[in-house]
Structures are given as structure tokens and as C-alpha cells.
Amino acid sequence: MSGVSKPTFAYLRKLGKNNNRPWFQENKPTYEIALADVKACVAVIEKKLSKIDEIEKVKIFRIYRDVRFSKDKTPYKTNFGVGFTRAGKERRGGFFVNISPGDSFIGGGFWGPNPADLLRIRKELEMDDKPMRKILKSANFKKHFDGLRGDEVKSSPKGFDKNHPNIDLIKKKQFLLGKDIKDGVVTDSGFSDEVVRTYKAMMPFFNYMSEVLTTDINGMPI
Questions:
Q1: CATH number of the domain that 135 lies in?
Q2: Considering the domain boundaries, does residue 219 fall inside one?
Q3: Which residue, 129, 133, 167, is CA-closest to 147?
Q4: In this structure, is residue 69 part of a structural domain?
Q5: 156 to each of 6, 20, 82, 123, 131, how far by Cα in Å?
Q6: Does residue 10 fall inside a structural domain?
Q7: How far apart are CA 177 and CA 29, in angstroms?
Q8: Which regions of the chain are under pLDDT 70?
Q9: How wide is the angle at C-alpha 76 spanned by C-alphas 55 and 113, nearest 5°?
Q10: How many distinct helices (H) and strands (E) make up the chain?
Q11: d(Cα 22, Cα 2) in Å, to the nearest integer?
């Protein structure tokens, strides 16, 4: 089986209703079973994903929340988050899978580009938006995604004209893709294949961004 088991989803639902340390400790064995279940699914995904891309690192994020600076003091996450880091300087960005009852999704892109990378992307989009527009308008892209997601500035970044025709792309602070997935898909045996199909649909976007971020504004390698 290459999906997440229904008992894992049941555990996450119960955790959402009992998000406190005593309940978590009492049900720790069930958590360990759920974590092992997710790890097994992720291993299958990683193996299949390695056939279409090179993955440097896979991380299943901790269930424990950092509540130091949050108004929400519930101690545990009610999801399993999995990150896949692409290998090498020539491959940029990463993939993500969120497993959560009623809120699962497959995502990827650039969550927090460093200032230099963000400026390079914006300068490229200011100069020529055609390659990005072509990707976003392609039939296969639109089959999987609802457009480019991510936070953006309200008007325009410093140094860029707010009336520039490409300002909708330039003002992005994050460049993310996401596809919401129903619970029944996540628990189905074909879930790993659905993840890989979604990642394949992201590849033109990743290839474009990698080319931008490994060249200067004149297109010369850096």
C-alpha cells in the first residue's frame, strides 16, 4: 500500500479534539504507529520521485509546535508535513506534502527566497514574463493547479514600478504551487502515484526557476 492508512487519519482527528499533553502521552503508542505509517508512505514516494528528479533531503516535520511566539498555545500539530529538498545548486526549490484530515495538499516552490534570489526573480519577470506566463497557462499546469500562490507586497517592491504590466508577478514574495487533495485520495493505494503526477506537472516551473537562479540578468551562468 502506498497511501496513508485510515487509522492515521483517525488519530489526527482525535488529536485535533484532544490537543493537550496528557492525552498525547496516553496515546503515544498510537502516534508512533501513525508516524511509522507516514514514513512508509513517504519512502515509496521518495523512490518514485527519484525517477523524475534528484532529491537531496527528505524531512518529516516534528509534531510538536513552537508556541513561544504564538497566541495559539496548543502543543501539537494536527498534521504530518513532509518536505523534499531538490539536490544541487542547479536544482532549486522544494516539494511538500501536507497530510491532515480535510486539509491535505501537495505543494512545492519557493517558500522563503533569500533577498538575492528574490531580486533576481523579480528582475527577470520585469524584463520578460513570457516564459512564466506560458507555464502558468499550459493545459497540464491548469489541470493540477489554480495558479501561483504565495504572499505578496500590497503595491510594488522597492525599485519597481507599481504600474508595470507584470506587477502581478513581480510583487510576489513567495512562488508556490499547491493542489488540494481529498482524504479519500490520501488513503488510497494510488496516493504516491498522484503525488508524483503532481510533481511532474511542477517540473517546467522548477526548470524555469532553476535557469533564472543559476544565471545573471544577461543569462550567463553564475
A1: 3.30.930
A2: no
A3: 133
A4: yes
A5: 45, 43, 32, 13, 21
A6: yes
A7: 35
A8: 1
A9: 40
A10: 9, 5
A11: 32
pLDDT digits (tens, 9 = 90+) for 4-35: 999 999 999 999 999 999 999 999 999 999 99
Angle between helices 191-213 and 130-137 (to 10 degrees): 170
Length of the chain in terms of residues written? 222
Which distant-in-sequence residues (6+ apart) come within 8 Å of 221 by Cβ?
Answer: 214, 215
Q: Which domain holds residue 148?
A: 6-213
What is residue 4's predicted lDDT score, i.e. its pLDDT?
Answer: 97
141-148: long-range contacts at Cβ-Cβ below 8 A with a sequence spacing of 24 or more?
141/201, 141/204, 141/205, 143/201, 144/179, 144/197, 144/198, 144/201, 144/202, 145/177, 145/178, 145/179, 145/201, 146/178, 148/172, 148/175, 148/176, 148/177
CA 204 to chain centre: 16
Total domain count, the chain: 1
188 domain-assigned: yes
- The answer to whether the predicted template modeling score (pTM) of the entire model surpasses 0.85 is yes
For 192, phi then psi, to 5°, come to -60, -35
**What's the pLDDT score for residue 78?**
97
Which residue in the block uniquely carries the three cell numbers 504516491? 192
